[in-house]
Amino acid sequence: QKEVEQNSGPLSVPEGAIASLNCTYSDRVSQSFFWYRQYSGKSPELIMSIYSNGDKEDGRFTAQLNKASQYVSLLIRDSQPSDSATYLCAVSRLTGGGNKLTFGTGTQLKVEL
Amino acid sequence: EAGVTQFPSHSVIEKGQTVTLRCDPISGHDNLYWYRRVMGKEIKFLLHFVKESKQDESGMPNNRFLAERTGGTYSTLKVQPAELEDSGVYFCASSQRRVETDTQYFGPGTRLTVL
Question: Residues of chain B whose C-beta is under 8 A from some C-beta in A?
Fold first, then answer.
């Protein structure tokens, strides 16, 4: 079992719709959860972080965390063509050695006109 | 403020050769991480520096990989000798504090191709 699992997609949604991206993780000790967006050939860019159960909203983005179910999701409202990218879910926990991120393989999102 | 920079952006070498990748973190960031993405796989952690000290090398594949961060500023990752399976994109990230909530900022990556 992978430590962080995501559906690779592609997930296609029409412009203006809500895109829902999901991620599950296996390490119950994980405490921090991140969503990175990566355009082709570019660096991963942090768009949301969440640390507590529940929802966290930032503009068109909402992250949802359920630690009991080991599940984290990202909702993108009013999807735009510029949202087309790969979305990477990452988790971390602080250990004696540092704060390394464990990534999923990413979900490719395509927002169609 | 300049972001994380990496050099070169692309490198094509033959099996058995040596390659050195460089990362310049954001100024003032004590934490520097190296990650690698092999084709079709997820981004995987390689190692973590705090200033010039290696805090966690658990992700380094083998002793053909050597990372340094002299003076606690930029870092280099040397692969010697390179093998075919070393091909991938090598990312560097930096962060300011060593806490779980700290944001890691990624560089654009170095695409390494070993022929």
Answer: 3-4, 31, 33, 35, 40-45, 48, 50, 55-56, 58-59, 91, 93, 95, 98-109
